[in-house]
Amino acid sequence: MKALVRLSMLFCFIVLMLSVSWDGKNGKNVGFRLTEAYAASADFNLDGSVDILWRNKSTGQNKLWQMNGPVLDSELTMQPLYDRNWAIVGTADFSGDGSDDILWRNKVSGNNALWLMNGTLYAYTVVLPTMSDPNWTIVATADFNNDAWPDILWRNAATGENIIWLMSGAMLNSVVWLPAVTDLIWEVGGTGDFDLDGSVDIVWRNRSNGYNMLWLMKSTNMYSVVWLPTNPDTNWKIAAAADYNGDGAPDILWRHKTKGYNAIWTMIGATVIEVLQIDSEPDTNWEVVGPR
Ligand SMILES: [Ca+2]
Ligand SMILES: [Ca+2]
Ligand SMILES: [Ca+2]
Ligand SMILES: [Ca+2]
């Protein structure tokens, strides 16, 4: 009991400490962030190109593909986490210091934690509220309500319910319920402001028929569904959505589950402009976990 009290005091202290320091730091960023829909990013090395974060589900190693636009520039080994119950479920700048951070969920315990990053280097860990039902999976992070803080999108793998945790840093402010998608074959592929209206939208893929759709959002309200081109080969999984070619419009990164091929659909809105084959990662134990 004593240990529990001490632990919760420590948690309160950390949250308090962070909320104080984060508020100050965030002030600098609010101005530019509010002018664009802030989706999950993974520009860990801060060179202006979105990178690709990988986790090896068999070894617990993590690595970063440092990209130059849609082209692989170099591969960087990141801090490992050998306990494979922990999955990387999001990448976003939760602390508001300009460095993207890494969100983890423990599939067994339901614990959630943030690795605060300093560029590509791990700095320290912050605990988030627990969601003990393991059916709830974190499928994306993005700033849905445009308050410059990344929020957390959850999907329930048993019921098809979807919710958003509206966050301020590591603090949960409120929970918003989205429409349920009870057909569990549908999975969230990523988020991005595809129609460039300033609100982050949600990309869905149907694992069984290869259909893809976009939920157009106004803040936390889904108001319209737009179909994306079908990709009938269901070995292709949507790995991430991010602006790989730097034209300001989100693109879709695909990974082939059995062959390890990777490809990018460069997009304008819901239209595919080009299909770019990028480098393969033939070891399918490596999974793309960011940007998410
Ligand atoms: Ca950060
Ligand atoms: Ca937010
Ligand atoms: Ca939008
Ligand atoms: Ca783009």
TrEMBL record:
The entry's keywords: Signal
Zinc-finger in keyword set: no
Keyword set includes GTP-binding: no
Range of residues in the leader sequence: none
Matches recorded under Gene3D superfamilies: Integrin alpha, N-terminal
PANTHER family named in the record: MAM DOMAIN-CONTAINING PROTEIN (PTHR46580:SF2), SENSOR KINASE-RELATED (PTHR46580)
Protein name according to UniProt: VCBS repeat-containing protein
